[in-house]
Protein backbone atom coordinates (compact mmCIF):
# COMPACT_ATOMS: atom_id res chain seq x y z
CA UNK A 1 0.00 0.00 0.00
CA UNK A 2 1.26 3.41 -0.89
CA UNK A 3 0.49 6.17 1.58
CA UNK A 4 -0.90 9.13 -0.41
CA UNK A 5 -0.81 11.56 2.51
CA UNK A 6 1.83 14.27 2.71
CA UNK A 7 3.92 14.78 5.76
CA UNK A 8 3.12 17.81 7.88
CA UNK A 9 6.47 19.46 7.12
CA UNK A 10 5.82 19.17 3.38
CA UNK A 11 2.30 20.60 3.83
CA UNK A 12 3.72 23.48 5.85
CA UNK A 13 6.38 24.26 3.25
CA UNK A 14 3.82 24.17 0.40
CA UNK A 15 1.50 26.45 2.33
CA UNK A 16 4.28 28.94 3.04
CA UNK A 17 5.31 28.90 -0.63
CA UNK A 18 1.70 29.55 -1.73
CA UNK A 19 1.39 32.44 0.74
CA UNK A 20 4.66 33.94 -0.52
CA UNK A 21 3.48 33.74 -4.16
CA UNK A 22 0.14 35.33 -3.21
CA UNK A 23 1.94 38.14 -1.34
CA UNK A 24 4.17 38.81 -4.36
CA UNK A 25 1.12 38.95 -6.64
CA UNK A 26 -0.65 41.39 -4.31
CA UNK A 27 2.45 43.61 -4.14
CA UNK A 28 2.74 43.62 -7.94
CA UNK A 29 -0.95 44.49 -8.23
CA UNK A 30 -0.57 47.41 -5.80
CA UNK A 31 2.41 48.75 -7.77
CA UNK A 32 0.43 48.41 -11.03
CA UNK A 33 -2.47 50.40 -9.53
CA UNK A 34 -0.13 53.20 -8.45
CA UNK A 35 1.38 53.38 -11.94
CA UNK A 36 -2.08 53.38 -13.53
CA UNK A 37 -3.20 56.23 -11.26
CA UNK A 38 -0.05 58.19 -12.13
CA UNK A 39 -0.61 57.67 -15.89
CA UNK A 40 -4.26 58.73 -15.59
CA UNK A 41 -3.35 61.93 -13.73
CA UNK A 42 -0.66 62.79 -16.32
CA UNK A 43 -3.12 62.24 -19.19
CA UNK A 44 -6.10 64.09 -17.71
CA UNK A 45 -4.52 66.80 -15.59
CA UNK A 46 -2.11 69.23 -17.23
CA UNK A 47 0.92 70.20 -15.18
CA UNK A 48 0.21 73.08 -12.84
CA UNK A 49 1.81 76.32 -13.96
CA UNK A 50 1.77 79.15 -11.50
CA UNK A 51 0.78 82.42 -13.11
CA UNK A 52 3.26 85.21 -12.71
CA UNK A 53 0.82 88.12 -12.76
CA UNK A 54 -2.41 88.96 -11.01
CA UNK A 55 -4.32 88.97 -14.32
CA UNK A 56 -3.19 85.43 -15.21
CA UNK A 57 -4.09 84.24 -11.71
CA UNK A 58 -7.62 85.66 -12.06
CA UNK A 59 -8.07 83.98 -15.45
CA UNK A 60 -6.89 80.64 -14.00
CA UNK A 61 -9.40 81.00 -11.14
CA UNK A 62 -12.21 81.76 -13.62
CA UNK A 63 -11.31 78.65 -15.66
CA UNK A 64 -11.23 76.49 -12.55
CA UNK A 65 -14.59 77.87 -11.36
CA UNK A 66 -16.15 77.17 -14.77
CA UNK A 67 -14.87 73.57 -14.66
CA UNK A 68 -16.16 73.18 -11.08
CA UNK A 69 -19.61 74.46 -12.13
CA UNK A 70 -19.78 71.92 -15.00
CA UNK A 71 -18.75 69.06 -12.70
CA UNK A 72 -21.20 70.17 -9.99
CA UNK A 73 -24.02 70.35 -12.53
CA UNK A 74 -23.27 66.82 -13.77
CA UNK A 75 -23.07 65.57 -10.17
CA UNK A 76 -26.42 67.21 -9.34
CA UNK A 77 -28.09 65.63 -12.39
CA UNK A 78 -26.70 62.19 -11.55
CA UNK A 79 -27.76 62.49 -7.90
CA UNK A 80 -31.25 63.54 -8.97
CA UNK A 81 -31.52 60.55 -11.34
CA UNK A 82 -30.28 58.19 -8.63
CA UNK A 83 -32.83 59.53 -6.11
CA UNK A 84 -35.64 59.19 -8.65
CA UNK A 85 -34.65 55.59 -9.42
CA UNK A 86 -34.46 54.72 -5.71
CA UNK A 87 -37.93 56.25 -5.15
CA UNK A 88 -39.32 54.34 -8.14
CA UNK A 89 -37.92 51.08 -6.77
CA UNK A 90 -39.51 51.81 -3.37
CA UNK A 91 -42.87 52.54 -5.04
CA UNK A 92 -42.70 49.32 -7.05
CA UNK A 93 -41.86 47.33 -3.91
CA UNK A 94 -44.88 48.86 -2.17
CA UNK A 95 -47.08 47.94 -5.15
CA UNK A 96 -45.77 44.37 -5.06
CA UNK A 97 -46.58 44.08 -1.37
CA UNK A 98 -50.06 45.54 -1.97
CA UNK A 99 -50.77 43.14 -4.83
CA UNK A 100 -49.59 40.17 -2.79
CA UNK A 101 -51.99 41.16 -0.03
CA UNK A 102 -54.98 41.78 -2.32
CA UNK A 103 -55.01 38.55 -4.23
CA UNK A 104 -55.03 35.53 -2.00
CA UNK A 105 -54.58 32.26 -3.77
CA UNK A 106 -57.76 30.23 -3.38
CA UNK A 107 -57.43 26.65 -2.24
CA UNK A 108 -57.65 24.47 -5.30
CA UNK A 109 -60.45 21.96 -5.39
CA UNK A 110 -60.17 18.47 -6.79
CA UNK A 111 -62.17 18.15 -9.96
CA UNK A 112 -63.31 14.79 -11.25
CA UNK A 113 -62.77 14.76 -14.97
CA UNK A 114 -62.99 11.95 -17.45
CA UNK A 115 -60.04 11.14 -19.67
CA UNK A 116 -61.93 12.46 -22.73
CA UNK A 117 -62.70 15.74 -21.00
CA UNK A 118 -59.08 16.05 -19.85
CA UNK A 119 -57.74 15.47 -23.35
CA UNK A 120 -60.24 17.93 -24.77
CA UNK A 121 -59.16 20.53 -22.19
CA UNK A 122 -55.49 19.96 -22.98
CA UNK A 123 -55.74 19.73 -26.77
CA UNK A 124 -58.59 22.16 -27.27
CA UNK A 125 -62.01 21.70 -28.79
CA UNK A 126 -60.59 21.32 -32.33
CA UNK A 127 -59.15 17.88 -31.63
CA UNK A 128 -61.71 15.17 -31.13
CA UNK A 129 -59.90 12.38 -29.34
CA UNK A 130 -61.90 9.60 -27.84
CA UNK A 131 -60.10 7.61 -25.24
CA UNK A 132 -62.24 4.72 -24.11
CA UNK A 133 -60.04 3.03 -21.56
CA UNK A 134 -62.49 0.19 -20.93
CA UNK A 135 -62.60 -0.92 -24.58
CA UNK A 136 -59.32 -2.84 -24.37
CA UNK A 137 -60.11 -4.65 -21.11
CA UNK A 138 -60.79 -8.37 -21.12
CA UNK A 139 -64.12 -9.75 -19.93
CA UNK A 140 -63.68 -12.00 -16.89
CA UNK A 141 -66.39 -14.28 -15.60
CA UNK A 142 -66.50 -14.38 -11.85
CA UNK A 143 -66.86 -17.81 -10.26
CA UNK A 144 -68.97 -17.80 -7.13
CA UNK A 145 -67.84 -20.20 -4.40
CA UNK A 146 -70.32 -22.00 -2.18
CA UNK A 147 -68.84 -20.48 0.99
CA UNK A 148 -69.38 -16.99 -0.38
CA UNK A 149 -73.00 -17.87 -1.16
CA UNK A 150 -73.56 -19.03 2.42
CA UNK A 151 -72.05 -15.88 3.81
CA UNK A 152 -74.24 -13.73 1.55
CA UNK A 153 -77.42 -15.71 2.21
CA UNK A 154 -77.40 -15.15 5.95
CA UNK A 155 -80.97 -13.98 5.91
CA UNK A 156 -82.35 -11.72 8.59
CA UNK A 157 -79.44 -10.39 10.61
CA UNK A 158 -81.56 -9.87 13.73
CA UNK A 159 -82.42 -13.56 13.87
CA UNK A 160 -78.75 -14.48 13.40
CA UNK A 161 -77.71 -12.25 16.33
CA UNK A 162 -80.43 -13.63 18.59
CA UNK A 163 -79.23 -17.17 17.88
CA UNK A 164 -75.68 -16.26 18.89
CA UNK A 165 -76.65 -14.23 21.99
CA UNK A 166 -75.70 -15.54 25.42
CA UNK A 167 -73.61 -18.58 26.29
CA UNK A 168 -75.88 -20.90 24.37
CA UNK A 169 -75.22 -18.93 21.19
CA UNK A 170 -71.48 -19.14 21.66
CA UNK A 171 -71.77 -22.86 22.25
CA UNK A 172 -73.72 -23.22 18.98
CA UNK A 173 -70.99 -21.27 17.12
CA UNK A 174 -68.29 -23.61 18.39
CA UNK A 175 -70.37 -26.68 17.62
CA UNK A 176 -71.13 -25.50 14.08
CA UNK A 177 -67.44 -24.87 13.33
CA UNK A 178 -66.27 -28.22 14.64
From TrEMBL:
GO terms for biological process: cardiac muscle contraction; skeletal muscle contraction. One of its GO terms (cellular component) is troponin complex. GO terms for molecular function: actin binding. Keywords: Acetylation, Actin-binding, Muscle protein. InterPro entries: Troponin, Troponin_I, Troponin_sf. It comes from the Eukaryota. Troponin I is the inhibitory subunit of troponin, the thin filament regulatory complex which confers calcium-sensitivity to striated muscle actomyosin ATPase activity. Belongs to the troponin I family. This is Troponin I type 2a (Skeletal, fast), tandem duplicate 2 isoform X1. The gene is tnni2a.2.
Amino acid sequence: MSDKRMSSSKKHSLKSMMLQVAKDLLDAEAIEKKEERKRYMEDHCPPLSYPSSKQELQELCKELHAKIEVVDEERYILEHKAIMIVNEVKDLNIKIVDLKGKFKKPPLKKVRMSADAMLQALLGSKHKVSMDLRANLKQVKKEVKEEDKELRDVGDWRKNIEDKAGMGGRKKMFESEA
